[in-house]
Amino acid sequence: MEILNVTDEAFVPYGKIITGYDTKVLCKALKEKTSCPEDGTIYEASTDFLEELDISRKLKSTAYAGMPIQVGYCNGHNTKLNALEYHRGSELDIPADDIVLLLAKLTDISKENTLNSNVVKAFYVPKGTIVQIYETTLHFAPCSKDSGFRVAIVLPRGTNTPLQPHESLNAEDKLLWMQNKWLIAHEESKPASKGAWVGITGKNLDIAE
Predict the structure, then answer these.
(1) Where on the phi/psi map is residue 16: left (φ > 0), alpha (ψ -120 to 50), or beta?
(2) Beta-carbon contacts of residue 20 (< 8 Å; ≥ 6 apart)
(3) Per-residue pLDDT tens over the stretch 157-183
(4) How far is CA 88 from CA 4, 19, 124, 203, in A?
(5) Is 0.70 surpassed by the pTM of this model?
(6) Which DSSP state fits 192?
(7) How many CA atoms lie within 13 A of 30 on its CB side?
């Protein structure tokens, strides 16, 4: 599949690069204090050692205009799409290693909660870059063809924590998977095997192919 750069004009509908912040200390902390599984990925929604960094305080006060945030990470090895998710509020991804993000638009999901994987676009993100993923952009775990990755994930506080009991009132509620997390899965994915809504049709895209 074609992999574009986040500096490409095609990325504009999905997000933007955030400038003005020094990411060196954060990337160093990811490298030194977090593990990188050889098989699959790990995710921590909130980590004290990242949230105590000066860049995290600045992101809270400016990029999120003072709103409560959490700074965690997603590390590991992955080349496949598997699923797509979205949140109420933008996500910031700050990779310590070069990554590829597989993205689609919220409007690509049909009224029946289905989406064909052929609408998904791939974007290369160089290490050290801060990328804002808009609320209306579908995304999931980062990908990397040749090696593992470590990526800081910034989100509104409470996102991706266990979902509280709720009453489903409409079609979108079928996608609720965790707190502030709506997810649509491919049938071949781990989330699907755990009961997530299976709505991605077509090929489970793999950047290694």
Answers:
(1) beta
(2) none
(3) 999 999 999 899 999 999 999 999 999
(4) 26, 23, 24, 27
(5) yes
(6) H
(7) 29
